[in-house]
Design goal:
single chain; alpha/beta; 2 domains; 5-stranded mixed sheet; 10 helices; elongated
Length: 281
């Protein structure tokens, strides 16, 4: 009887090892698959250049932003990847759930470098290779509103957890988009924050001008989009540093995680700082 128990346990262990190896190989193939015609990611728009040192990918939210960026980009070296809705919060989700997300696995396929999985249980799944990265810059390009900020945070959290070396190697950037468009006579000024808006208005004191709050990326004129967001000579990019990503993840955890006491304490201590941003109309 004891021999039968030992034999049964040996068989169970053997099957477990075989299943784990099969899962590892399937996942590795899924995340590092070449971007051939059959495996092409839906709505991903590639660029012409094969020179990784100049290739840039803009990760945008939704089809309307995809259309605007597609028209404004330089197709020689700028590619576009749209995000369909809000992605999974990767901060605490287990790896099985993360890798079942089509949005996330599509993003990993497009990046081409695999993932770094820092877990003993998932150690064998790690297939990260920085040399396989297909881009010199990964640029997060979202609307300058609450939804856009949240999508940007979710993307940063995903990269921070699955591919932290991309942040450490300074490959990840945030594209700043202007908050205001100010037109006076035949000249247009773009203000990226309230301080810049006030400075432009002081310069234009006594002149006639119009001021317009920036629309979503999908409504931007292609020429304006190119000038303010896409063109390396005139755009503004914020390079994401490891400390920035870590702080973002911590703040995201406080505001949207399971620590109710921490969230309550943070709101009590810092809530007054955000009164001007409240929509109480």
């Amino acid at each position: 009887i004891e021999a039968e128990k030992i034999g049964a346990q040996v068989l169970i262990n053997k099957r477990s090892r075989e299943d784990a190896e099969k899962t590892r190989l399937n996942l590795k193939g899924k995340l590092t698959a070449k971007m051939d015609i059959t495996g092409r990611v839906a709505k991903f728009v590639d660029c012409r250049s094969k020179d990784v040192s100049e290739r840039e990918i803009f990760i945008v939210e939704g089809d309307s932003a995809l259309g605007a960026v597609k028209q404004a980009r330089d197709p020689n070296y700028q590619a576009v990847m749209p995000i369909r809705g809000k992605i999974l919060n990767c901060l605490k989700a287990d790896y099985d759930k993360i890798f079942k997300s089509e949005i996330i696995t599509d993003l990993i396929k497009v990046l081409g470098c695999g993932v770094q999985v820092k877990s003993k249980a998932n150690k064998s799944i790690a297939s990260f290779d920085i040399n396989a990265l297909r881009w010199s810059k990964i640029i997060l390009c979202t609307d300058a509103d609450v939804d856009g900020f949240q999508i940007r945070t979710l993307l940063l959290t995903m990269l921070y957890r699955l591919t932290p070396q991309l942040i450490e190697e300074h490959k990840v950037f945030i594209a700043e988009s202007p908050l205001y468009e100010i037109t006076a006579k035949d000249k247009t000024y773009f203000a990226y924050n309230e301080r810049e808006k006030d400075e432009f208005l002081m310069q234009l004191e006594g002149q006639k001008f119009t001021i317009q709050r920036s629309k979503g990326l999908g409504e931007n004129d292609p020429d304006m989009m190119n000038l303010t967001t896409m063109n390396p000579k005139t755009r503004r990019l914020i390079q994401v540093k490891p400390g920035d990503a870590e702080m973002t993840a911590q703040m995201f955890d406080i505001l949207l995680g399971d620590n109710l006491t921490g969230r309550k304490d943070y709101i009590a201590s810092h809530g007054s700082e955000y009164l001007d941003d409240l929509d109480i109309s």
